[in-house]
Design brief:
single chain, mainly alpha, Rhopdopsin 7-helix transmembrane proteins, 11 helices, 73% helix, 2% strand, olfactory receptor activity
Length: 314
Amino acid sequence: MSVFNGSHYQPPFFLLSGIPGLEDAHFWLSIPLSIMYVISILGNSIIIHIIHKNPSLHEPQYVFLSMLAASDTGVSASTLPTVLNVFLLNHQEIEFHCCLAQMSFIHTFSSMESAILLAMAFDRFVAIHNPLRYTVILSQSRITRIGLAALVRGVALMAPLPILLKRLPFCKNIILSHSFCFHPDVMKLACGSIRVNIIYGLALVLCSFGVDSVFIVMSYALILKMVLGITSGEGRLKALNTYVSHILTVLIFYVPLIALALIHRIGRYHSLLPHVIMSNIILILTPVLNPLVYSMKTKQIRSVLCRLFAPKVK
């Protein structure tokens, strides 16, 4: 017990958790989870490959789509080892520094995805508002700078998280609420003052995900106004179809993310089940849905997929 009474104790490992109340079914739950990971990583990798190999798809909207697929692949690759360890192998231990590294990757890729969703909303706004100057406004060099800005912002904002956690003593318990490391979850295990962590975490959510979501809502509100102003019924229906697909994916990403961040800070005494469900939706289900919603609804990519996988007719 002497280590727990020390001034700055860091546990050698944390214990990850699965779904509360369904511990006996974890092995069977690992089967759909494994299928979802295969769909996510394989689906997003195929999308990246298709866009890279087809010059006709080297347009701004498809380049942003490949960036989204890359960030989704990063999120899935970050969570996959521990999730399958917990559900498939019942191995719950994760070394302290590995936990901090996984947390950094998860939050960085999530921040990148948020920024890319904003860029995609801006892309659709420009395409509808000023189609004649679309490729001029979103030139290749500008798209590259947007992608680098999303990466740099994600790394810069999330880099302080493990540093802030390493300064804290951990002397309560070492059981996390999720099957992966999540900053608010790790933070609540500390027995020192976490005021700085709470303030920085909340500021991070508001300044990145919060600001992004506000601008995305504004962009799609303007897009909807312009779409409803299209005189051609067929053109309006086509634009609305793309619009609805984008909105659904944005909602799938942002609603659970913001709700999870708030629950972790104000819902301390509630059931852990909402935390687990929403975090799994964000980090496991969203990367599965994005290649389906964005790509299968896109005629150009769908036609390339059909040529790749459909048997050739002689």
